[in-house]
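Homework-ish question, so no full write-ups if that breaks the rules, but can someone show me the predicted structure for this set?
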Amino acid sequence: MRFAPSAKFAAVAVAAGLALTACAGGSGSSGGSPDGAGKKLSVLTGVNNHYPEEQKEWFKDIAAKFKAQTGADIEFETFASANDELTRIQTSVVSGQGPDVYSLGTTFTPTAYATKAFVTLSDEDWKKVGGKERFNPAALGISGPDSEHMAGIPFVSRPFVMAYNKDLLAAAGIQKPATTWDELAVQARKLTNASKGTYGLATGYKDNYDPWKFIWAMSVQAGNPLVDGDKLKMDDPAVKKAYETYFGWLTKDKVVDPAAIGWSNSNAVAAFASGKAGYLMMTTSSSVPTLEKSAVAGKYAYATMPTVAPGESASKGDGAKAASILSGDNLVVADYSQQKDLAFAYVKLITSKDEQLNYQKIFGELPANAEALAALTNPVLQPIAEAAGKSKATPFTGAWGDIQLGLVNVTVQSIPDLAKGSVDGAALDSRLKEAQSKGQASLDRASKS
Amino acid sequence: MSTDSFRDTRAATIPAPDRQLTRSGSAADDGGVPANAGTAAARGAAPSGKPSKPRKSGRRRNISERNRPLWMLIPGGMLMLVIIVVPLVLGTYMSALNLDQYTLRKWISAPFIGVENFVEALTSSPLLHSVWLSVSYSLIATVVTVPLGIAAAVATQNPFKGRALVRSVFLIPYVLPSFVVATIWRTMFQPDGVVDSALGTVGIDSGLWLNGPQTYWTLILVQIWASWPFIYLLALSGLQSVDHEVHEASALDGALWWNKLRYVIFPYLKGPLSLAFLIGMLHHINNFTLPFVLFGVPAPADVEVLPILTYVTSFQSFRFGLSAAMAFVSLVLIAIPLFIYLRAVRLDDAETPGGKK
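A: Not a homework solution, just the prediction itself:
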């Protein structure tokens, strides 16, 4: 008969399928995994522009493992930009349907938390994802307003560090990278040789995010965490000092390429990659692929950024732990989800030690899983792993988006002055005052609701 | 209005059957016929399907007005209701709510605060500044692109060797996505970038393009570059509609090229160019991609145009209610001149001289 072979094949396939389901059922009952046969979990995550093919492979791989554990399918959806993501979240929040699990950037987590549309994990829930203690404690810093109310489950860490050119530092007689901002400026002056087009620091003043991270770090290290309860402290002298230092690299120290007023972070990476800069500021492990293929391959190393505020001799308050903002991705489970147990099982799977290490190997992002983080042995990554432990969360308030915008805006509006070679103190004051009043208004709304 | 007087004189001199035709043409103004569906729906007359206000009361309906299959407007009318009217009503309602990230989840029950958002938008936000920026930049860009477009259309009207190639090249800025245009220009305008070094060789120190006061002119320049081919296209279509006899007649009368252009050809272009001007203005006012990609967010204060301001208010500050109020205010502000302009040019008038459709 003509159909015999295919019929036989179908029979085998069905038998295999049954066997697999049986296996899944078995492991499910022993490992405590929920039975999700016939169900489908929907997961929304950011598209990985560096490794799109690998990401697709990873999706397939995880879906197969998840199916083996729970019997349920996973449908991955990706968003291309933060704006995309926001639109998806808004529609889901308003309509009460959509993906079960979302992957969010850390600084966006407070805003998402403020919508109350995501599950605040109970002790029971934490057990379902493998226990709170499996995560790097620092990575939990921006999961919720306090340790009892957490919605974000850390997935990867992406702490900010600086890279330095070993050859250039050695040629300038510098033994080891700076640990205070003042020292950094001194070293940068030694590294700068404008006639050859070499500069001490590479950083982009036109970047949409970088400027606020510098100001935040220097300010926290000087003992001002910017948000104190429901008061914004942007008109504090420490903040002004931070801006003066940050702008001063360009105007007074002249250790940054004057063209940097038009640069975003990627321009700075390119300048460093061509060997024209001693330090690359505010970068992450995602610069590794670019640098490995560049003129500085094998000649660069990472280091944690300084933790001593400008003009100080030691860091104040939590400053020593503020080498970077707490950065990375959190997972949140939607409150409207009808299959929360499955969602937790998925989170448990991808935050397990093995999967986290595997993810690190493919995408270069640091594990949020404490054991996996400790198991990293690559020396290039050591300073980054150290920065992951020394990351401090930005204030957990729904107003943070506005505050961050205000911080960057001060830089944006100061760029014409930067181009002229000096930023007028009075002008800076008035910009800070404006940012202060707008940010404070936003904080007031946050505390009212 | 010159067009009106033209019609009146003609209506007075032409015999009766033609007059009938004239009437049916002007009746189209009152809404209802498919070609005019947009205006009709905007007046809320589409679903009911009756001309809302006959121009002259007691006038007898003529043949083309009777038995019109107005029910055919129902599908289109329904779509307009769903796509335009419902969101408009929702947006207006949102503008009266204190809607932000804290209340978004149950947005229907967000606190009702009446006109507070409007007061905040008008008094303590950069809204009016943004409206001024948007309107002035759009106007300048449009006014400059119109002669450019006409010149290009006239230049490529007569056949010459390589005309097809030139015409294709002219369309490049138009077919490039806005995002690409903005990215390329941003790269060229970098400090010490291509533009700066080119100007430097002739001794001009141009200053900053992407920050500070000059950004306003940067935006206008790029907008002109990106949108003149649109005017060119419409001008070209207008030129194509000029009858061959007209060229012959003016040649017989011995008109020189400028007189021919000024008195014979341009009147033909009036209809298409009015349309192009209008669409160009609206397109510029609504252009979000260009300033967003060129300058980023937060934008320098000199290019914080309306779409950027609304975007930042909505998606960076999460003040959805406030941004709805801003959008509403700008809609009203833009609608006023638009309304006057539409009345003035009568795009739907079949009898504009040379306005062959």
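Now go work out the reasoning yourself. Hint: Chain A touches chain B through 33 residues (CB under 8 Å).
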